[in-house]
Amino acid sequence: xxxxxxxxxxxxxxxxxxxxxxxxxxxxxxxxxxxxxxxxxxxxxxxxxxxxxxxxxxxxxxxxxxxxxxxxxxxxxxxxxxxxxxxxxx
Length: 90
Description:
This protein is mainly α. Helix content is 60%, strand content 0%.
């Protein structure tokens, strides 16, 4: 289930390229301490990553795979406290 509905789902090299792009965007948000945006991009990257075959996953640069699966899991995994809801100031 994706947050975005796709009319033409990505396949092959286009899917690999999109996964890499989303991981890089998530990392840039991480470096900027923008956790909400990082979490959103990471979740989208994971959804797309899980659609890849084993051979396609090996085409993703290792540094990106490590960040997506291990390092970011430490901070955004299910064992962590979920993000707070913003309070409306009136």
